[in-house]
Amino acid sequence: MKALKNILWELWLPIVLVGLWLVLSAGSKTFYFPPLARIMDKFVHVWFFDGILKDLTPSLGRILLGFILALVVGVAGGTLLGLLRRTEEALRPVLEFLRSTPGVALLPIATLFLGVGQEMKVFMIALACTWPILLNTIDGVRSVEPVLLQVARSYRMTMWERIRFIYIPNASPQIFAGGRLSLAIAAVVMVVTEMIGSPGGVGYFVLNAQRNFDILSMWTGIIMLGLLGYLLNLAFRLAENRILRWHHIKNA
Amino acid sequence: MSTSPNAVAPPRSEVPEAGLGAKGRRISDRPSPVQSSRQHRRTRTVLWQLFAILAVLLIWQMAAVSPLVGDALPGPLQVATAMVGLWGTTSYWTAVLTTVKVWATGLAICTVVGIPLGLLIGISLNATRSTRWVIDFFRTIPTIALLPLVLLLFGPSMNMEITLIVLSAVWPLLIQSMYAVKQVEPVLKWVARVFRVSRRDRIRFLWAPSVTLLVTTGMRLAATIALLMTVSAEYIGGAAGLGKQLAASEQTFNRPEVIAYAITAGILGLGINMVIVFVQHRLLWWHPMIRGARA
Amino acid sequence: MNQPAANQELPAPQPGQTLLSVRNVSKKYGPNEILGDISVDVRAGEFLCIVGPSGAGKTTLLQCLSGLLAPTSGSVSLRGVEVSEPPAEMAIVFQDYSRSLMPWLSVLDNVALPLRSTKMAKAEIKKKSTAALEEVGLAGHLDKYPWQLSGGMQQRVAIARALAFEPAIVLMDEPFASVDAQTRSDLEDLTLKVKQHLGITIVLVTHDIDEAVYLSDRVLVLGGRPTEVVDLIETHLGEDRDQITTKSTPQFAELRARVYQEIRRQTVPAQS
User: The complex's ipTM?
Assistant: First the structure.
């Protein structure tokens, strides 16, 4: 009963909004805002299953690859820098600068060396995603309770064990917080690199449709990107809830 | 609620000494032996930081002249020359100013819309539940996907950029404001009730200070995203500003200028970040996270 | 706010009269019955301690008394006026000083904050707040911030805030549970001194039997499930109390044993 009420509270607004869009756009003659019903028809037509194979799969592949690369580099680098306090302090201005640079500004440099293909796209996604994860990992590693480290010393834990059982778990809530931000950035960078890069990918599809004034297809592409972003986030959150269970329970 | 997945706490380590806050300094004005040794340590850190920057420049120079890269990558000296050259041109400064103006306008709109709306939604449980999906959806979709559409609607103009900025940067601000309201200490709310603190004083002395941390964190996220969107919209969409200059230099194969513009964007980003962190520390000198970092 | 302001002069409560009357208060959270039918009259000028085992809903009861929480049934009235919101003549000292003081306000401003909402003049507010802080021995710390003080001192600030509000009755929710033993005794004696000096009524919740007996004129013992009144004991320990001499009297030992047994009987089911 209570659960049902909860779900109703959460559902009414999305349903109303989609309903409004459906109704308000129904007789639309505006070139840029075609009726939602037609967009939906087109969506099925374009994306099932040619579009999914041709454009969605490559997009999904490169965002995942870039993100995972960033995760590995960010966590490994962040742990290392978190442990080496002096080094990290010295590198702080450089890191801050690199992080603050809008990823897109580095595009021309990346295309210079890597061209406009897959390598450049994955590299750019990974690069832009690394900073939030790296900096958050450093913070997380730093915030380990000194008592825990004393315990570790008294049990003669090796460095590797400390990293595995103390530093990384302690930093994981912050790593995830950084990862969530990174994922959002990854989606933006993916779309941007696809728009300026070689053909293939949903971002390219949207821009190409716009250039051909195929507004219906453009809308389906936008919706597809929305779904992609939403589902990636959902997957990320499920993973987080599973891995950070101890943390969420502790803070409940 | 404290670890709800959307609330992002500001990283603790980004704490410059700049933000002590006038009041926070009161405790120990006299220099002590401890302090002078701290001073000493600080100087050494700065020296190491300069050293690190020089090392990075050196590596860059070596990469630029190495046969591996050929002459594709201009060295730091070339870029510096190009940068100084650009500083003498009006087009450079116009581009910087345009980008800053568009960014600031977009962010201002986000602030005016996002913070009050977020606070209001956060106060009411039903409003939070009702908007959960909608906010979650718009927060996660890459708004840059709308670029082709807004380009069609507005052309490569400031309006196009601002639309994109607002649509993407308003969410973090809204979400952080929502969580800020929910994290106000319940005991303090009781205190306000028990001691019959007037509504005006509750807003001023209880709610405002309580939400500042998360709201300013939201500001920082929003500012970063807004800059990314501004430069992206200029670079791809062709609106005037840094991004457009970047694309123009790229097309004329003026590589030192490309990098000089990229560095300009970086400096802009760094500056924006530093200003917000400074303000955050000014406002939150009393916060455990920030006063602790001073020690 | 149209209720009487905190500083308004009301006829002083006569000692011994009923000040706060609790009638058949019960509290349920869903199917969980926390408090079952509690009645007690708090007399003006007395020090009443509510003692009971952990998890007995002592804090819930205190929140019902203050109007922060509405009881499921029954009623609370202060001098005949039903309590639905915290009344002007009541102040509360919460357990967790680190959360009940505002870290962004100085010690003086923390104490002065409630007074700002009254019609009092600025100078008057400052005078009253300073006096309250002097009363608790913090005269030299007005401009510090709570987080620059020790735990015991922070709790003194919270007490001063309650005193400056000039209430007829102060409710204290395990106020000394988070400080060390020495500080705890100091704060207990401070509370006794302040009570005598200002003639206020105090209701204090604690799980510490020694503390309850030492401070009280009467001890209200809670127990059972749902929680009910097990006993209400007059201590007759007199006005002047001392941590060492009072606690070593046979009378104190007897009271202590009695409360202890009553609580134990309620928590440990009969083993015979």
Answer: 0.87
